[in-house]
Design a protein that fits this description.
The chain is about 10% helix and about 35% strand. The chain is mainly beta and about 100 residues long. It has a single domain, classed as PRC-barrel domain (SH3 type barrels), CATH 2.30.30.240. The longest helix has 5 residues, at about 95-100.
C-alpha cells in the first residue's frame, strides 16, 4: 500500500466494490449538475476530501453564469435527491451559503 500512497489508482466500473446505500464514488459526482431546489447552481468539477474522519467532503462547483467556483458541503442533511444516472443532484442548502461562497 505504501507504494501507492499519493498516487491515483484507477479501477474499471465493472470491478468496483459495491458501496453502502448512503455512499457514492467520488468519480460519479464529477460532472453532475447541482441544483438548490429546482434552481441550477453549476457543475461539480472536483471533490475535496475532509481532513477529519467525521468531516464533510466539499463539492467544488463551477457556477453556471461565470467561471467562479463554489465550495458546497456534501452532507446527507442537505441532499434532497441524488440521481447519478441523470448526473443531477438536488440539495436544500442553508440560507446564505451561496452568498458566502459567491
Amino acid at each position: 500500500a505504501e507504494t501507492l500512497q499519493g498516487k491515483q489508482v484507477l479501477v474499471p466500473d465493472t470491478e468496483r466494490v459495491a458501496l453502502a446505500e448512503d455512499r457514492v464514488w467520488i468519480a460519479d459526482l464529477i460532472g453532475c449538475e447541482l441544483y438548490h431546489h429546482d434552481h441550477p447552481i453549476g457543475t461539480i468539477v472536483d471533490v475535496q476530501g475532509s481532513e477529519s474522519p467525521h468531516g464533510a467532503s466539499l463539492l467544488v462547483v463551477k457556477k453556471r453564469e461565470s467561471d467562479d467556483e463554489l465550495l458546497i458541503p456534501f452532507v446527507q442533511a442537505y441532499i434532497q435527491s441524488l440521481d447519478l444516472d441523470a448526473k443531477r443532484i438536488e440539495m436544500n442548502l442553508p440560507e446564505g451559503l451561496l452568498e458566502i461562497n459567491g
